[in-house]
Amino acid sequence: MANKGPSYGMSxxxxxxxxxxxxxxxxxxxxxxIVVQCGPDVGRPDRGRLGFQxxxxxxxxxxxxxxxxxxxxxxxxxxxxxxxxMVFKQMEQVAQFLKAAEDYGVTKTDMFQTVDLFExxxxxxxxxxxxxxxxxxxxxxxxxxxxxxxxxxKKAQEHKREFTEGQLQEGKHVIGLQMGSxxxxxxxxxxxxxxxxxxxx
Length: 201
Hints:
single chain, elongated, mainly alpha, Actin-binding Protein, T-fimbrin, domain 1
């Protein structure tokens, strides 16, 4: 992978806008959750975007995080004993996390790309993925989530309704309000629009 130099012009503006989306307060909450969820052996990053990126970059902590949301014996990602040092191995580890997160229920629109984390292109997207993962864990409420449930919002859950055949048939005879109504409509009191044209000679 070639080193990329500084960006200029339009690409610099775009990168600057992406960097402004990064939330420092959210970083603190996510770090706190990861430490509580995975245990203190994961350590803590230096504060700021760069520290957060370096902490998660090799994919090991992310893999431990997603594994901690599953029961023993059903861990989706194999975590190496020694953190990978080769670039392609680190990217592969991050890709395994992303696959496991998607299988857990994180939608594709909430997922970051491996380069967003690895090259620091969009760390706000990394935060978004971790928030979605935390929200799902709180919503599932299966006993594997550790930490304060108020750190994440619960996702809306489906509330299916069952109707009998009779109820469905009755519904066919009701005129919905979207159709409008002609009740009480008449032309009483109607006058022509505006005044007649005045022709003066």
